[in-house]
Amino acid sequence: MAGIGFALKRMFQKESFSSRALAYLYSSFIAAGPWIISVVSINLLLLLMKIANVNIVERNLFSATIVYSFIFSQIIVAPFQLVVTRYISDKLYLKKYEIMKPTFQGLASITFFISLIISIVFYYNKPLPIYYKIFSTYLFVIVSLIWVLIIFLSAVKNYKLIGKAYLYGGILSLALIFYLLENPIKFNELSLPTNFLIAYVVGLSLIFIVLLLNFFSTFHDGSIYKYDFIRYFGKHSVLCLIGLFYTLGLWIDNLILWFSDFKVKIYDTFIFAPFYDNAVFLAYLTTIVTLVLFLVTIETEFYSTYKKYFENANSQETLNVIDDSKNKMVETLKYNLFYTFTFQFLITLTLVLIANPLFKFLEINYYIRDFFKITAIGAFFNISAFILLLILLYFEKRAKALIISICFFFTNTVFTIFFLNKPIEYTGFGFLIGSFITFILSILLLFNYFKNINYSTFALQPIYLSEDNGFFTKMANKLNSKNESKSFFNKTK
């Protein structure tokens, strides 16, 4: 993501208000585009459904369809995300740009089939109209593919187009809804929820198509090795586990609450907790500030000092010079972390304090309001821990990052179950406590590493590199050889 940070930093250096505003807008879309679109669109569409007098059961059906698609698509992509990001980074460092297009095609193909099969199995025996199942399946697949495309957006520098794609997609969904409310497509059952679902997936489709065309126009050439990235699952399997456990930790409290007294069962298809789910979605929305500041500030200023330290460590500089660059790197990081976390804390605190009048004005249920107050604080600790985890990955401290991910998943699970049968005012405390413990652990692991960073840099390097011939390498070679055969056949036709 450093490439994004440097490009955006140039926008921030411009003095005009409009340039800086656009830089924040684009960095917001890049950092949390699907999140913004999902949360804002869901709430706006649910508000329109309420205005249109759609009954509560059908509103819950629409909401549950999106919530399931959003959560489980993220879980599907999570094991691939960090591994593929590492693969792309290594190849781009070597200027092997031809891997971008085939890698996306390979990962998109795998994601498409996994999400399609899961969706078909899930909806197979459900008592919903076939057309609603088809649109729901399409939604699940397209959201999964958008998550995949997000992994590759760091290499696409057209941030104006990226921002416009998200904006136009949201506008298209809303415009189509207004049209369909006046001229609805007639369905025998669930007519209004289906029309709303159609409008939502059309907007997402526009976002995906625009971003995909932009990606392919940037990386129009490519090799035939679509599945070469699979070999990295052998060498970098820990990254797969980090992504999986952290993402499961993000949603495990929601999944547990789905089987609590707050659960709502919709059309014998979905079980979810709408009050808690909406509160968590809104709470995570408040953390976009941290993601943006990390993207623009820490990844630019910190990265330059990080790079300088390792350049000195790998050269013939004296220990004093190396120590000076180390101290500058650590101090820069401390300052930026303090600035980012303080700014986020003030925003979170402000939103918690004004939650009562704000939610009352917006006519949002008081259960959601009360859950939001707790989960917003939890989201603050959670996003802070996530930033520290990413920094540890900068230094290749994967074991420590894995400990953080497992800690988050484990503590969120245990404390959510512990508070499950407590009075209602304790709902969300499992997520809050789990996130707080994970945050403290992340601080301890990161700054403990800094105490011994010189030793780790010089003494813990591998003596020799061994060739990887494990299961994933063989799988990648086999899949790539099939592509070679197809390519040769096509050329000789």
What keywords describe this structure?
globular; 493 residues; 79% helix; mainly alpha; disordered N terminus; disordered C terminus; two-stranded antiparallel ribbon
- Rough outline: globular
Number of strands: 2
Order of helices and strands: HHHHHHHHHEEHHHHHHHHH
Q: Tell me which oligomeric state these chains represent.
A: single chain
Assign the structural class, choosing from mainly alpha, mainly beta, alpha/beta, alpha+beta, or little secondary structure: mainly alpha
**Beta-strand percent range:** under 5%
Helices and strands in order, then pairings?
Layout: H1 2-12, H2 17-51, H3 56-93, H4 100-123, H5 130-152, H6 159-182, H7 191-218, H8 232-235, H9 237-257, E1 264-266, E2 270-272, H10 274-285, H11 288-313, H12 319-353, H13 355-361, H14 366-394, H15 398-418, H16 429-451, H17 453-459, H18 471-492
Antiparallel strand pairs: 1-2
